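Propose amino acids for all 304 sites.
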């Protein structure tokens, strides 16, 4: 039996496959541009969504994406399923595979996603782990393309925690050829091996301490919460990250028409000022909407 088409991380997929998924996302958003959007390619198919962490966007956008493509969903939270009482992920994977056509998992540990994918006989989609968030970055890339055109010659600057979302941006830079500058305090910078991997792939990725240097000439500034799910808040963490807050001064150091992105949820006054996230350069609502369209592309690629 052919192995299922998992969507686990952007570094595991080739550029042309990712391009296809993004193109499908754009076509689903603008049905006139793509005939595929007119039909319901996932009629009769069901997605199970397994959540070990909270979610608003991922849950709602996956559910609506499935329904709008003709399919159905089942939602499980760890707390009210047997997983929460210690049933192995491997057993859960084999059971769910007998009921549904694909599994989306949001988990506390990447190893659990890997176990799900190893034992499932249906496609498994990464809905966020402690280490990455690839579905988010597919929506972000769609948003960047909508506002700025082709990705290849663009400069994206990340300012803040070098977290799971930053990791998927690094994978994307290696796959799509844009320049990515990550500005983070040293203890929170992405792992050296990750940067080495990206560079070995031809990725234009740099890691800096200075957020102003990172955003100079950038087309897009991105940040994320200082306290990801599962991470402990502390005064030290707050103080380390304060210089990386995306405020009007930092936005002004980028290109005058630079856009601001944030995967949300955001904390105004921490990683981003209210004036920036609610200001004219912010495209965060487009970005949130694009989760729906990008995920249609991902679901269609996994299942159709
Ligand atoms: N950006 C994102 O994944 O949001 P949720 O946690 O609400 O799903
Ligand atoms: N880095 C954040 C992203 C939330 C969508 C977290 O992991 O909590």
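Proposal:
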């Amino acid at each position: 039996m052919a192995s299922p088409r998992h969507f686990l991380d952007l570094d595991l997929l080739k550029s042309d496959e990712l391009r296809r998924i993004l193109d499908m996302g754009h076509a689903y958003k603008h049905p006139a541009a793509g005939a595929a959007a007119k039909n319901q390619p996932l009629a009769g198919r069901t997605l199970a969504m397994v959540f070990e962490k909270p979610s608003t966007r991922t849950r709602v956008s996956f559910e609506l994406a499935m329904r709008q493509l003709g399919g159905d969903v089942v939602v499980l939270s760890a707390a009210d399923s047997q997983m929460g009482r210690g049933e192995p992920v491997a057993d859960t994977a084999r059971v769910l595979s007998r009921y549904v056509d694909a599994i989306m998992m949001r988990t506390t540990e990447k190893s659990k996603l890997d176990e799900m994918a190893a034992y499932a006989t249906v496609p498994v989609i990464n809905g966020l782990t402690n280490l990455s968030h690839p579905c988010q970055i597919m929506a972000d890339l769609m948003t960047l393309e909508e506002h700025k055109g082709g990705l290849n010659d663009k400069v994206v600057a990340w300012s803040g925690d070098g977290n799971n979302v930053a990791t998927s941006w690094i994978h994307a830079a290696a796959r799509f050829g844009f320049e990515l500058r990550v500005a983070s305090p040293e203890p929170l910078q992405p792992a050296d091996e990750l940067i080495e991997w990206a560079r070995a792939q031809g990725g234009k990725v740099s890691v800096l301490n200075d957020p102003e240097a990172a955003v100079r000439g950038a087309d897009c500034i991105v940040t994320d919460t200082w306290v990801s799910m599962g991470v402990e808040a502390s005064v030290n963490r707050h103080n380390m990250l304060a210089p990386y807050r995306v405020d009007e001064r930092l936005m002004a150091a980028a290109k005058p028409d630079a856009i601001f992105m944030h995967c949300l949820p955001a904390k105004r006054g921490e990683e981003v000022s209210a004036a920036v996230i609610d200001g004219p350069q912010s495209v965060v609502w487009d970005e949130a909407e694009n989760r729906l369209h990008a995920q249609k592309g991902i679901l269609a690629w996994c299942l159709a």
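The beta strands are 46-51, 72-77, 102-106, 124-126, 155-159, 179-183, 204-208, 220-223, 259-262. The chain has a mean pLDDT of 96.
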